[in-house]
Amino acid sequence: MSQTVRLTMAQAVARFLAAQKTVIAGETVPIFGGVWAIFGHGNVAGIGEALHGIKDQLPTYRGQNEQSMAHAAIGYAKANFRRRFMAATTSIGPGALNMVTAAALAHVNRIPLLLLPGDVFANRLPDPVLQQVENFGDGTVSANDCFKPVSRYFDRITRPEQIIPALRRAMQVLTDPAECGPVTLSLCQDTQAEAYDYPESFFAEKVWVPRRVMPDADEFATAAAALKLAKKPVIIAGGGVLYSEATESLAAFAEEHGIPVMETQAGKSALPHDHELNMGSVGVTGSSASNALAEDADVVLAVGSRLQDFTTGSWALFKNPDLKIIGLNVQAFDAHKHDALPLVADARVGLEALDAALMGWQVDSAWTNKALKLKEEWVVEADAVRAAGNAALPSDAQVIGAVQRGRKAATLVCASGGLPGELHKLWRADGPGSYHLDYGFSTMGYEIAGGLGVAMARPADDVVVMVGDGSYLMMNSEIVSAVMMGVRLTIVVLDNAGFGCINRLQMATGGDNFNNLFRDTYHAELPNVDFAAHAASMGATARKVGSVDELEVALADSEGKAGVHVLVIDTDPLITTEAGGHWWDVAVPEVSDRPTVNAARAAYVEALKAQRIG
């Protein structure tokens, strides 16, 4: 007869999480890097007590906002290439719902995240409890049902023994290369405190290692044959290249066969920026080199990419009528996109198998040489816009140049606004994981919290967050957490006095400047936020600089120093890099009384003709 141990459901959760391990560089380590927690009614008496009991085995960190602490967990998991991850627990009601945005971010970006929100009473006797959302027609519904569409796996625990299959299923999803994403276990608050005789075997150490999916023979033969016939092939490297640790295999494959490589936001840093076959970013925010090649390509080998609209130029980038896409992806859903030839497999396994099958084959040198020339031209263009200038307000591109010169080996974190587009084009990533963007969900407010998570995962790295004033105002509270925890972090705030990126989009679609920049809003008084003073009030070392040259000096001065350093610089909201880039499908009103909108609509209708169908 198996041995049992009597624990509350919450104690069982905590013990189980602490027993899950993985192997990194030959060392067995906990797969959970810790638990983020903001306690309240619904989790303080249950999961809070349980986490206290194992705090020496599984650390608990206190966030300042439920959404941002989950963002920090996402940053941690992404920086660990999904090999290690974190959990986050909250009270019921608003505390739980604050994490829904983070769940969606993890869902879109395929990032492992365990969410443990408190829930209402399973026995329903005290209903309605404080913060309970009541559904007049369904007694089983709670606020936590909002997690269902943004969770890879969702379960509501109403009996203590239910946690056994639920946690096992959770780990399967969190560690599965294809199904990976957020898991929500909604923990009814009375059930958290209920005891059960759990089998001791449930808490035995378990080691999880990545599954490497092998390609199907027929799919592989079709893909290899298509590549052998290619005259103008290109490779699009997505995030799956990094997550499958396939960067060396990608470089070897590209070099052996002379195929140029272009990177998505998630895939950037798959090759060093100075690798001769790395053409840089692709698509809407692509380099001129990548996009020129993509327009002519007859075969696109998309490795570990979701092929979202920014990558495909809203499916208008590829102009070759004979185009074939090979979708090398561990997730069949992605491998089949855009009528691709699917090659469902681990990225590293797939690339190495294709390399062997194509042994001795190289693309015509004229195609490779064209790529090399286009890259040389792009580097000159990029250098020009990154250089410091004499304008009263610098561009984002000039600030990017200053940050890179001031911190030559930085790991860059960003998420939303105009910066991701400029960074995708202009940031020069040296090593795998040194470029960390959320541009799947493009979540304003992710940047500082995500940077905290990245710094926790990679404490030896020089982590630099670049964030606009709009996103900073939306969520900045994890500066307090970073200071409190002694995390080393640099934050560069670009203040263009509003939502500059969306203002530019508004103008590009024929609109007037309206409700984006502070000066174009309804206001009694224009804001004049002292971001440096605000950051300093939270414990950071902060200063405002007056130019990109001063920023560069300040970055060099603070390099390697402990604590959180915040540097603020005013920027021009209207300037963006014209070189490179591609049309993006943003629908323009069909009817308007304004000539500028009508003109934008006419241009939009013309651009739609380039979109591929099917």
TrEMBL record:
The residues covered by the Thiamine pyrophosphate enzyme TPP-binding domain are 419-567
Q: Which parts pass through the membrane?
A: none
List, for all copies, the residue spans of the domain called Thiamine pyrophosphate enzyme N-terminal TPP-binding.
Answer: 57-131
Q: A Gene Ontology MF term for this entry?
A: magnesium ion binding
Entry keyword annotation includes Hydrolase: yes
Positions of the Thiamine pyrophosphate enzyme central domain:
221-354
Q: Which UniProt keywords apply?
A: Hydrolase, Thiamine pyrophosphate
Please, one GO biological process term? isoleucine biosynthetic process
Name the PROSITE patterns for this protein.
TPP_ENZYMES (PS00187)
Gene Ontology cellular component terms for the protein in this record: acetolactate synthase complex
Pfam families to which the protein is assigned, alphabetical: TPP_enzyme_C, TPP_enzyme_M, TPP_enzyme_N
Q: Which family would the database say this protein is a member of?
A: Belongs to the TPP enzyme family.
Give the PANTHER family listed for this entry.
3D-(3,5_4)-TRIHYDROXYCYCLOHEXANE-1,2-DIONE HYDROLASE, THIAMINE PYROPHOSPHATE ENZYMES
Question: What is the protein's name according to its record?
Answer: 3D-(3,5/4)-trihydroxycyclohexane-1,2-dione hydrolase
- Native organism taxonomy: Bacteria, Pseudomonadati, Pseudomonadota, Alphaproteobacteria, Hyphomicrobiales
